[in-house]
Amino acid sequence: MDGVSLSSTKTWISRDYSRCSGCRRCEIACSLHHEGVIWPEASRVRVFMLVPGAEVPHLCAQCDDYPCVKSCPFEALSVDDKTGAVIVDREKCTACGICINACPGRIPHLHPRDGYVLICDLCGGDPQCVKVCQEGKWDALRLVREMPQTWQLYTTKLYARTPEDITRDLVKILFGEASEGMI
Amino acid sequence: MKGYAGRFLEVDLTSNNIGEAKLPEETLRRYVGGRGLASWILWDRIGEKWDSVDPLGPENILLLLTGPLTGYFPGGRICVSGKSPQSNGIVGSTVAGEFGVELKCAGYDGIIITGEAEKPTHLFIFDSHVELKDASHIWGLEGKETFKRLVKEGREELKRINPRFGEWKDPSILYIGPGGENKVRMAAVMAKWTHAAGYGGYGAVMGSKKLKAITVKGSGPLPEVADMRGVSSLIEEVCRELYRNELFRRWGTGHGGYYYGNQTSSEPVRNWQEEWHDVKDYGVDRFDERVWVKRFWGDYGCPTTCLKVAMPTSGPLKGAVSDNPDYELQAYVGTNLGVFTPEGNTYLSARVDDLGICGINGGNVLGFAAELYQRGLLTKEELDGIDLKWGNVEAFAELLEKIAYRRGMGDVLAEGTYRAALRLSKEKGDEVLKYAVQSKGIAIGAHGNRSTLDYPSYIAYACSVQGGDHTSIAHLPLDHGDSELTIALYDSAVICWFNAWTLPEDLIWDFMNKVTGWDISREEWYGEMAPRILNIQRAVLLIGGPDLRWKPKENDENPARFYEPLPSGPKKGRAVDRKEFEEMRMEYYSAMGWDENGIPRGETLRKLGLEGVDKILRDKLAR
Ligand code: SF4
Ligand code: SF4
Ligand code: SF4
Known about the structure:
The complex is a heterodimer of chains A (183) and B (623).
Chain A: E1 10-15, H1 25-35, E2 46-48, E3 56-58, H2 67-71, E4 77-79, E5 86-88, H3 98-102, E6 109-110, E7 117-118, H4 128-135, E8 141-146, H5 148-151, H6 163-175
Antiparallel strand pairs in A: 1-8, 2-3, 4-5, 6-7
Helix pairs in contact in A: 1-4
Chain B: E1 8-12, E2 17-21, H1 25-31, H2 34-46, E3 62-65, E4 77-81, E5 93-96, H3 99-105, E6 110-114, E7 121-126, E8 129-134, H4 143-161, E9 172-175, H5 178-181, E10 189-191, E11 195-197, H6 202-208, E12 211-217, H7 228-243, H8 246-251, H9 256-263, H10 284-290, E13 292-297, E14 307-310, E15 322-323, H11 327-332, H12 342-355, H13 359-374, H14 393-404, H15 409-413, H16 417-428, E16 438-439, E17 442-443, H17 484-493, H18 497-500, H19 505-516, H20 522-543, H21 578-592, H22 602-607, H23 611-622
Parallel strand pairs in B: 1-6, 7-12
Antiparallel strand pairs in B: 1-2, 3-4, 3-6, 4-5, 7-8, 9-10, 9-12, 10-11, 13-14, 14-15, 16-17
The structure holds iron/sulfur cluster (3 copies).
Residues 60-63, 66-68, 86, 103, 105, 107-108, 119, 160 of chain A line the site of one iron/sulfur cluster.
């Protein structure tokens, strides 16, 4: 899928894990927005707490080469032209999980009740999770909008890492030497 | 039924039977959830034989209950209850974390645990997949290690059950440390690393049932509510209100160490011999600079995130992780022990948590022991060589460990301040009792009432149905925002007091009714519902047993220490005024519908629909 091209701004959510308070307001906002109810496991952003105090908000990073989209044998995934978000076609998705394995951060997960995969769609360009995180002044999630001329200069894929990997690095920042053996 | 999953998980550890219980909507509406519902379930099931039930025996019931607002109201909590091994009554002890939310997402409003397992057990819940697992390999482990293993095992198990889901988030876990395993009466039920349901001693109840931990993961949504749009906008409104409390967000209760000590003369210092200190190093700024490694930490949906992660990063105590420490621990394993350094305090907090002991009751008993040591009533030999001098961090840590493992003098102290005092007074004389700063077996919260600048009520602890609990205090008028009837609302809806107490009251009622669809009014709560809960709690306190029961009036008392004048600070010379106290107590009895001896009147109980309580209480008191 080399032909991914965005006509306008790319929307993206940058994260600063060390600022995440673990409040999960982002999960609540996301599930309310997409499911109409509070549903932690159906939230597109999920906050992992493998080590208490070192919470990790985990969501799609919009890799510039979109391995998940490329991997899908059913063409259920596509890239939103406007925002760069990965869009899931519920009808086409068979919940085979191939995209989960293709994602370097194992970020997609299945909807706990309905048979399709969950990936952040950036709420169409107005991310609800970022809104509440900003409201709370935690600033762990931040909205980045890059102009089409510049976004290709950066790679966001670096954020597509597994929760364990991120936590391992994060506890080093927070707890220093004491982080040995925490995870 | 809105706001509720509609079913409870029922687990009998003796027979390994796992079932479900449903409660009629009428009962849920009457008792709401958490502490209220715990009072009802316990009374309903063991009321008649209350005095013969050993809290640490298989007949006791361990309850883990959510409330209708759990998960919806910002800030997640769960209420732990049962017959308390501290007071022999009922304590509703709430702990923050995601457990309650996960439990509801798994489809349960609560867990009712009976019996006693043969070997160490771990209850694992993933939606309706419920399993009792062997926990021998984690029995004996301290808190952080227990938690770490359970997170790992839990995620592996989730993956095994549903491998295609993708990465599983961590399940939520309640567990006990060595303190609970060894049935230390001050043992807490722990969550995460540092969160504790401390009051009541329910960690010991878990230990007596050989239940090391409970793991839960729910994959469903929270139960349906009456008005979801209304609830979402209330969530936003509550958050908006709470964001305005910038200082509390910034400092949490951690600002208390200097504030309560210096400004209000109400912080325990050296087992309450003083309530004032002027150690500026014990200010929140020093904690911030020296030990906070993260400045905002909160639980499910919490806008306040008043917790901070603390850890000394250098020196001999480095690597001990704690939260804040919050004010209660700042006081109880800090000033109360003559420890005035953020590092020492953080270290002792971390030890308390890792050993699974309530920081308040644990700190209280350590202070009690240290005062006996100061006065020569406990010797170094009796303490196996520990030099229990004020401020000696290592010594307190060592004694704490002895308590957790019930070694030497630790075995006596593991019974809690009051029971230990009773026992030691036999050997050393009654003087010992006056150094026990507790009420009905429960350590007084770290807010003294001699200066009246913090807790103004002389009856705050004396008349509370939760004994020395620092949140549930007796206060008049009954519908006051600080009164026990208000706290019983928070403990029953199961929400965080810190996120509730500054809000306009209407908001809470609105929230409650938009979730449940019921029309509970303020009047109904204060006039009928809260009194019903408190009267059940009061009745079982008076029935008590088997080892201790509380005499009406005689035990509705302040600790002796509070009648001694404050020896230092701007409020020097102040003490609880006995005459005023007795007048207030009488006023409180009458407001609660209790007779002049503090016994609930028959008509009061009958009016509340508690005829059964009336009958049994009178039977038992006549004996
Ligand atoms: S809203 Fe922000 S601070 Fe709260 S859990 Fe999400 S990312 Fe973390
Ligand atoms: S982070 Fe994962 S889900 Fe998102 S674009 Fe990259 S591969 Fe796809
Ligand atoms: S941007 Fe929207 S869809 Fe994506 S995680 Fe945030 S709230 Fe969910």
